[in-house]
Amino acid sequence: MSTPVSTIPNIGPATEAAFARAGITSAEALRAMGADAAYLRWLAAGLAPHFVGYYALVMGLQGRPWNDCRGAEKLALRARFDALKAEADRTGRPGALPAGIERAFDEIGLVPRQPARIPGTQTAAPRGGRG
């Protein structure tokens, strides 16, 4: 009998469901493939990349809390995460921007559009107007 993915520390029901969409349906399968291969499957399934989710997975597979990742270890994991994203982009991750375009956007100062703020609140206005 297989063990649910959510039995791995730091993985809750939403992440478990996302891994199922990527074809990973047991904790045993996830442990056997390791964090990097599992995250490549995540990206190949068209799921959004998220650094905190990646390092929480790495920490969970080591039996550590997600917030145990700091300093040089976190920097090394960021480099691995960026390499995984780049690899997924090269192999055709659904929804990925063309290779190198994010760097080009950074160089010309193009930044993602921020939602409008409603004056006097901390709430963003809905896209397309103020309602």
How would you portray this structure in words?
It is a single chain. By secondary structure, the protein is mostly helical. The N and C termini lie far apart (51 Å). It is globular, with a radius of gyration of 18 Å. It has helices at residues 13-21, 27-44, 51-61, 71-90, 101-107. It has one domain (5-107): 5' to 3' exonuclease, C-terminal subdomain (DNA polymerase, domain 1). Helix content is 50%, strand content 0%.
Low-confidence stretches: none
Structurally, the number of domains stands at 1
CATH-defined architecture: Orthogonal Bundle
Give a quick account of the main beta sheet: strands, pairing sense, barrel closure: none
Treating each run of at least 4 consecutive H or I residues as one helix, how many helices? Answer: 5
Short description:
It contains five helices and no strands. The protein has helices spanning 13-21, 27-44, 51-61, 71-90, 101-107.
Task: Output the keywords.
mainly alpha; 131 residues; DNA polymerase, domain 1
Secondary-structure map with pairings?
Blueprint: H1 13-21, H2 27-44, H3 51-61, H4 71-90, H5 101-107
Helix pairs in contact: 2-3, 2-4
